[in-house]
Amino acid sequence: MEKSKFLKNLLQALLFSSPHPLTVEEIAQIVDAKPEGILEELQELQKEYQKRNGGVIIRFLKNRWQMVAKPEYGAVIKEKSKHVSPKTISRAALETLAIVSLYQPVTRTDVDLRRGVDSSQAIKTLLESGLITICGKSEAPGRPFLYRVTEKFFEVFGIEGEEELQRMLQILKENGETQ
């Protein structure tokens, strides 16, 4: 692929994946290129998107570049997404999820001991979101539920599967970051 085409594709991917608008200087630093060349490619990319007349545009506003939905589609998306808005995950739920993923299968009591606080609400949230599931009962007194991560967990966090998760745990153990 020619250098110019590669840079344009890289800029497009960067604008698409960036959670916030970027200055030319920020983009140049990220892609390791000269700001002048970046500006030229961004302007060309902006024209291509205008000509394409699709649902997405490249916008320059307040010295920053951004890929956004066209206003007429953005309003519809905003309205429709109110009904399916995903919950953000709390710090407590994220800590709980990390413990479940590293020590699964694990009971709520095991999670509580590792976190040092009650994890009931975090576990409930994770169960509702489909990131963890009940996978059985412990032999401990009271036969508490055992929890483990789900396929959705692997999809959301970009982990290929159980083997990769085990490799990550091994690296953490070797670096003394888990007990």
**Shape by Cα distribution:** elongated
**Tally the helices: what do you get?**
9
Ranges where pLDDT stays below 50 over 5 or more residues in a row are none
Strand content: 5-15%
The domain tally reads 2
Give the mean pLDDT.
86
Q: From the helix content, strand content and strand pairing, which structural class follows?
A: alpha+beta
Q: If you consult CATH, what is the topology of the largest domain?
A: Arc Repressor Mutant, subunit A
CATH class of the largest domain equals Mainly Alpha
Read across the widest sheet, the strand sequence of neighbours is: 1-2
Total beta strands: 4
Major sheet? 2 strands, antiparallel
CATH superfamily of the largest domain: Winged helix-like DNA-binding domain superfamily/Winged helix DNA-binding domain
User: N-to-C SSE series?
Assistant: HHHEEHHHHEEHH
Q: How much helicity do the residues have? A: 55-70%
